[in-house]
Specification:
By secondary structure, the chain is mainly alpha-helical. 58% of the residues lie in helices and 3% in strands. Strands 1-3-2 form a three-stranded antiparallel sheet.
């Protein structure tokens, strides 16, 4: 007999039970069938950079909740690149119809975590080095435009929302051994604050969020030694760059702010590409670094 359709609240309870295990302390049951080839492990406390930079007050749909659970498993490295994500098996795992599962897969495709191909279904995807370079280049263009807008706008009141985010980044930079994940997420919150403050949520913010940040996050932060912000000097320099950036914005130095924002992004891009280049033979096209 087919499973009864679940409401978002029921799926949320099911997701919660999979994360916390049973009352006897055992972990959640494995996924049914061959949805992804592995059981879904309890979700870790860590989340992606893009998902922690915004706060939502609306109730998540069934598809969104399924996407969050499956996406977390992919980000934790539980499912290798190329592994198939079957609609029917995922539907059975969450006891829902295939409609919400299709919604979830489309969300994961937008996040860059899976690739959906006609007649072949959905599979966990891998970002090429060229795509990694493109993500940082597009980030730099969007953020560069945002800080230019902020610099040219006589009303700087929107920066009041960015200041506490910068203060949090300063506190983490001052710690001897901060969580690198926390620091990376703090930089993301500063960037999202700048995008929000520039007053273009329907264009710049939406475009920025559509970039495959989560797929990039999976490549970098599932590793034992992620490349970003390992040294105290690197963390301090990052905070100082953002602090100078806000100074330039408040001084209405549009050219200086945009150049510095692009410098922040290109420095991170080149550091990440160098790290990935040490792990793989393939590398990004040289012109992708020179064009931006």
């Amino acid at each position: 007999m087919p499973h009864a359709r679940k409401t978002p609240a029921k799926v949320a309870a099911k997701v919660s039970s999979r994360s916390s295990g049973t009352s006897t302390g055992r972990s959640a049951r494995p996924a049914a069938g061959k949805a992804t080839g592995k059981a879904t492990r309890p979700a870790a406390a860590t989340t992606s950079a893009s998902s922690t930079t915004t706060t939502t007050t609306t109730t998540a749909t069934t598809g969104e909740q399924i996407a969050k659970q499956l996406g977390q498993a992919i980000l934790e490295g539980q499912h290798p690149v190329g592994e198939r994500v079957g609609e029917q098996a995922v539907a059975e795992m969450f006891a829902v119809s295939r409609g919400p599962v299709r919604d979830a897969l489309r969300i994961l495709e937008r996040q860059g975590l899976i690739e959906i191909q006609a007649r072949r279904g959905a599979r966990v995807r891998h970002l090429s080095h060229n795509e990694v370079a493109d993500i940082f280049n597009v980030r730099g263009v969007l953020l560069g435009l945002a800080v230019r807008y902020l610099s040219c706008d006589p009303d700087k009141s929107g920066l009041a929302e960015v200041d506490p985010r910068l203060a949090q980044l300063r506190r983490l930079a001052g710690q001897k051994k901060p969580s690198l994940l926390d620091f990376a997420q703090a930089t993301g919150r500063v960037a999202m604050g700048l995008l929000a403050a520039c007053g273009s949520p329907k264009v710049l913010q939406a475009t920025y969020r559509d970039l495959p940040h989560d797929a990039l996050w999976r490549m970098l932060w599932v590793k034992p030694s992620p490349p970003d912000y390992e040294s105290s000097a690197r963390r301090t320099a990052t905070y100082e760059d953002y602090a100078r950036l806000l100074e330039k914005i408040r001084a209405s130095d549009a050219d200086g702010a945009e150049l510095l924002m692009r410098k922040i992004m290109t420095n991170t891009r080149d550091e990440v590409l160098q790290y990935l280049g040490l792990m793989h033979e393939a590398d990004a096209d040289a012109f992708r670094r020179l064009a931006f």
